[in-house]
What does this fold into?
Amino acid sequence: MTPPSDTNLGPESPVIDTSNLPGHSIELGRDAPLVLDCGASLGPFIVAYQTYGSLNTEKSNAVLVCHALTGDQFVAELHPITGKAGWWDLMVGSGKPLDTERYFIICANVLSGCMGTTGPRSENPETGKPYGLDFPVITIRDMVNAQKLLIDHLGIEKLFCVIGGSMGGMQALQWAVSYPEHVFSAVPIAASARHSAQNIAFHEIGRQAIVADPNWNGGDYYSHETRPHSGLAVARMVAHITYLSESSLHQKFGRRLQDRSEVAYGFDADFRVESYLRHQGITFVERFDANSYLYITRAMDYFDLAEEYDSVLARAFSETPVRFCVISFTSDWLFPTSESRTVVHALNAAAANVSFVEIEADGGHDSFLLDVPELHVTLTGFLGGAAAHRGVT
Amino acid sequence: MTLEAVKNGNEALRTDLQVIADLVEPGSRVLDVGCGDGALLAYLDVKKQVDGRGVEISQAGVNSCVAHGLSVIQGDADTDLKDYPSDAFDYVILGQTLQATHNPKRVIREMVRIGRRAIVSFPNFGFWRVRFHLLLHGQMPLTEVLGYAWYETPNIHLCTLKDFVTMCRELEVAIEKGITLTHTGRIDDVHPTGLFSNWLAEQVIYLLRRGSD
It folds into this structure.
């Protein structure tokens, strides 16, 4: 990828238009609103989702893919806004580990997201204007509860698998804890059972960057000409570093200069790594809403599976019938292997059926999105074994 | 050996693993500690329909097992058995791994705690060839089963059949069955006095449970 020389982080980038997205959309919570962890009720609300493959007659081959913080439902197709390949194109498709010839893949944009599902940018029925900060604070469990309504709507009694990386892995764990009888297997990848202090700290930097942007305007910017794009871009830049590893940054950029042979003695993007980060920031604001970023990072911060079990994680998994496959990566310092090991120890203490693989990969936290053959082999094997036990052919 | 071949019955299990497999009741819950490449688990899965789990110290071994659809985690017999609740399994198996643990006594105690039965196999240091090797050559024995030079062996806690029986008595662990393997592949029950067996067995397999005899 060649980063552009244009490094303007100004607010002039286009406003995201999600009015004509491909895929499906369903209104949920009309009869009974969704009661959120914060105490508020939400309903009716929209869940935008996408599916690949087809549901078998026994409805036993449904796989729910849960996306990460800035992901969305466009898992395995060209993204309607960015035009880039789906974020898990390597994993989902015919002949791939999540084989669309065999499994019915579902992915829904999370609650408080900005790709069609109800979030802070959606219209508040009480005011007729976008919610902004009037949108209730969402948790990972709220996201999962909304997904459960979608799964019910699709008439699926038991998901064959819930799988996801990072925040998607948090959702997979939450699914197993909240709905153990409705999940046959769960695959949390590069995830944890609770967000660490370090991770909350990084999120706080991102949020501060957004709220410090004058264009944020207390979260009420939807009717304005300008958006808090600078703040959101900085948030993305900080976060992006945490998704990589020192060695992958070094290999990719080193101290190489951008379009110049010597440093310019100024504050332009002299280094390629700077240019790359600015590019990451600029392209991100074209597809993401700043308030959604605040809400979703908050949901991750609040995640602590053990909290309601007197901080004994094993109790969250007590008697669980779910088959687990926990996966971590050696170079991931954001969700390090120790976090996955904590989950595995708790699952052992619950005598749960668990596989645990630490995969050697250089790509840092983002390794789950990359072409890591061992990840693919592991998933194919785990899903194949689970399918044999579930009777999915 | 490939796991597929073991599953299809095209390839035989290692003899000591076959002896262990024959001790396992069909349909039971099994934890295989030090499961290596997963051959025993794959066999038990297909032939005895067990609910099997594995613990393996080498990440490469774990990844290969999981890629073959087995439920295996990376872990250490010395440190990770304490996580499991009591009576979580019908059988906890430790095949040719005891002698490589740091604290064999604690490992056996944990095994009979988390499993209603434990099955342990280990090389018998009382085997006549081992004794003669040391006696005649004056050097650390090298046999088929004990194939490492003294300076690079992972086998840090070798014992004889008699030593093991003594430890079980100290731990108040009951021996339900003892089976010996000779270097020619002959399978016998441990002799009631243990005397001949301690000379003749190259490997020993014991079925154990909590409590005195």
